[in-house]
Amino acid sequence: MSILVVDVGTSGLRAAVVREDGSVNFLNYESCRPDTPAPGLVEFDPRKMGDAVLRVCNATITQSKNSDKIKAVGITNQRASTVMWSKSTGEPLGPALGWQDLRTVFDCITAASEHSIKLAPNQTATKAAWMIQNYVVAKNLDLTDVRIGTVDSWIASVLSNNELHVTDSTNAGATGLCTLDASSWSERICDLLKVDISLLPKIVKSTGVIGKATALPGAPVIASLIGDQQSSLIGQGCINSGATKITFGTGGMLDVFTGTAGPTRMQRSAHGSYPLVAYSDEQTTYWAAEAIMLSAGTNIEWLRDDLQLISTSQESHQVAAQVEDSGGVVFVPALFGLGTPHWDYGARGTLLGLTRGTTRAHIVRAVLEGIAHRGADLLEAVIADTKLSVKSLRIDGGMSQNQTFTQSLANATGLNIEISSVAEATTLGAAFLAGVAVGIWSSIGQATSTAKPAKIVIPTRKLDRAQWHEAIDRSRGWIASLSSLDF
């Protein structure tokens, strides 16, 4: 028996089969990049996304049909991106708003000043309110025929032929619209934003049979929904207090498992991390804390596409390895500002310490080391916020395959770095949750026991953290108007 996993990211989506031994097979991928019609606006076509999901799922099922019986489907997804569609037809009512979309910045500021509600523009709340006004009210549509959801809700609807309208607590908790325990929608917040609760999906547990994927051959049951970063946390076996992972993709997300004690408020902590639901089952809600790096792999793309210092992302390791250190060059990867712990949207990328002897290799190495330093920043922040002891760091994402980077991360944090055997551990997490729901594994503990690191990288020297903090200070406040924003 195997699990079919649908994994919908920000720039692409995939389907794969996960077997009982934790192996990932028959992976099919399609690019599904969002559009940017104007600066700060990020949209995507939900129908194109839904059609692509059906294609990759059918391709994977066809390839696996002679060797695997699909017992259930798990869904994992980019969080907070918002979709609106017709309850009667299942067709989108307009472009979906990606989580990076900033058109509701001033709505967030208004919510804070007038209603004392602290919302961020990357959450669903103000996006849903904007869509109601612009897709429904402005066009005089029937509000009773409207559904609003995050990407997991939309994919569940697509796979069930528009029968299901659901989300789970990990995704609901990222919307800004739910109660503190993420088990129900907040009437107060929804009323203030004029978001009718009847338009929102039913909140279900992260693991458990939800309904049938009737759009797929054999109509397997959908048995898990989970946000991508929480899925990666579980996929890397981080299910004990203090177990920590970072996913290094376009950005970087650190999540540490904190246990069953929930937060007293769903707001940013003193050192810049956020509480969030790790996953939920019928008995318990488990919690985590998350720290965010706004740009990670983006910096490698910048070296490749804009500066043209490297021809491929993989070449960044080969070029950086030509020198033993950065020659005193320090790069702060703040191309979109700084996330945890600073949350300075006006900070900008900063390259310091250049001399006549600085080479291409020094600059490339400084960029990799700068991303590693930011990883250490995230780690220090969650330790300060949670008071937990972190003994090792597990990583996945595209940059986890870069040897110079992973060694720099070990040197910056002083911890052993455990590299996931699967580059995208999100696939494993959703599979483990769905598999437990249908009895392939007896517990999450048994499921995650199959997750073993492909490699462990140990520290070999210390990076200069004092110099790093000086560089951070010089990068901050470059655009004062943006640095003054606080969400």
Index terms:
Nucleotidyltransferase, domain 5; 487 residues; seven-stranded mixed beta sheet; globular; 15 helices; single chain; alpha/beta; 2 domains
Summarize the structure.
The protein has 15 helices and 21 strands. It has about 475 residues and is of the alpha/beta class. A hairpin with a 3-residue loop joins strand 13 (about 245-250) and strand 14 (about 250-260).
Average pLDDT, rounded to a whole number, is 96
Count of β-strands: 21
Please work out how many helical segments DSSP would assign: 15
Major pleated sheet: 7 strands, mixed
What would you note in describing this structure?
This protein is 32% helix and 23% strand. The chain is of the alpha/beta class and 487 residues long. Helix 7 crosses helix 12 and helix 10 (360-386) packs across helix 11. The protein folds into 2 domains: 2-228, Nucleotidyltransferase, domain 5, CATH 3.30.420.40; 237-424 and 452-487, 2-Layer Sandwich (Nucleotidyltransferase, domain 5), CATH 3.30.420.40. The protein is globular. The mean pLDDT is 96. The strands form 6 sheets. Strands 15-16-14-13-19-20-21 form a 7-stranded mixed β-sheet. The protein has 15 helices and 21 strands.
